[in-house]
Amino acid sequence: MSRLQVTVDHGAITRNVERLRAATTAQVMAVVKADAYGHGLVPSGRAARAGGATWLGVAQPDEALALRAAGDTGRVLTWLYGPEVPARALIEADVDLSVSSLPVLASIVAGAREAGGTARLHLCLDTGLSREGVRPAELAALLDAVLEAQADGLVTVVGAWSHLAWADQPGHPTIDAQAGVFRGALEEIEARGIALEVRHLANSAATLTRPDLHFDLVRPGIAVYGLPPVEDPSGEGFGLEPAMRVSATLALVKDVEAGRGVSYGHDYVTPARTRLGLVTAGYADGVFRSAGNRAEVAVAGRRFRIAGRVCMDQVVLDLGARSEAQAGDEVVLIGPDGPSATEWADAIGTIDYEIVCRFGCLREKTSV
Ligand SMILES: *Cc1c(COP(=O)(O)O)cnc(C)c1O
């Protein structure tokens, strides 16, 4: 039995996608990579479709195939692989494929021959992130090879895309610089006679803050799960609803006097007579060790900081002398009735993406 209960409100995912759709005239690709940021690939993909996502996006080819195996028949794009990409299986599964390099193109062309089909390609452009994507100087050579394969009926270019480095700082000069490089590359592609069905650049932050960069398709991820990628100036969190809730139960409570050291190394010492509560979830369950003495949880609506070090399978809370908490009471680590993933991230010096991935990836996969 998992010591943490991770539950996902898939209705919130549907409503979040509806809100993102209302923010754009472009199509929406819900990014469901990394097991939908820990929220469960298949149910999250289904929920995003119900909200109007005409595309789903995944980094790993396996995830695209898993969506198909689960019955998803809409457009799906996968983008992160080397020449070992299982191109034949992806083409047979009617998955759109990103291409960044000649070796990957060669694998896709070979896969198309084996499948007896045509691969739908999205040219991935490195406009300044220096991660996946072809650099502008190498685009012409990639286009030569792509057009040759297209003439043979093995591929057809349907998209061109790139990814922003600083989208979470809407005024950052690199955004316009990358958009300029992107537009230049689009012109170069179209000048070669390629008619692009979808041009796409915007992640969640750019979807919510840069309508001028939506092109034909936006690719929100974190916002789909209800976490605002930037602060909403109106303080409304863009109307997004966090979909993940993480909870545990108190296994034991006990009353102790002032001056008791708590957990390994006694990093916390009770300042007064108090009631301690034991939660049987630790870093093996996804509770970051760095959360000790920093992150908060909620019991019956009240917040308590984790007292002392996080152990492998347990943490201790200082519930206060007047606490009426009992063994069996619920402890909310993340949820509408407790801290947000963003508060956890701020407490331990990371981003909320890592918080939901961590709790989600270590959870018992019960919600599929
Ligand atoms: C992860 C990812 C996204 C989604 O980013 P968010 O910041 O979660 O909205 C979009 N596009 C690509 C290429 C990605 O890797």
Automatic annotation (TrEMBL):
UniProt pathway: Amino-acid biosynthesis; D-alanine biosynthesis; D-alanine from L-alanine: step 1/1
Active-site positions on this chain: 33 (proton acceptor), 264 (proton acceptor)
Positions where N6-(pyridoxal phosphate)lysine occurs in the chain: 33
Transmembrane segments: none
Pfam families: Ala_racemase_C, Ala_racemase_N
Reaction catalysis annotation: L-alanine = D-alanine
Cofactors required: pyridoxal 5'-phosphate
Its EC number(s): 5.1.1.1
Superkingdom of source: Bacteria
Binding residues for substrate: 131, 312
GO cellular component, one term: cytosol
Xref: InterPro entries: Ala_racemase, Ala_racemase/Decarboxylase_C, Ala_racemase_C, Ala_racemase_N, Ala_racemase_pyridoxalP-BS, PLP-binding_barrel
PROSITE patterns reported in the protein's UniProt record: ALANINE_RACEMASE (PS00395)
A Gene Ontology molecular function term of the record: alanine racemase activity
This protein's record includes keyword Transcription: no
GO terms of biological process kind: D-alanine biosynthetic process; peptidoglycan biosynthetic process
Boundaries of every Alanine racemase C-terminal domain copy: 243-366
Entry function: Catalyzes the interconversion of L-alanine and D-alanine. May also act on other amino acids.
HAMAP family with a match to the protein in the record: Ala_racemase
Family (UniProt): Belongs to the alanine racemase family.
Protein name (record): Alanine racemase
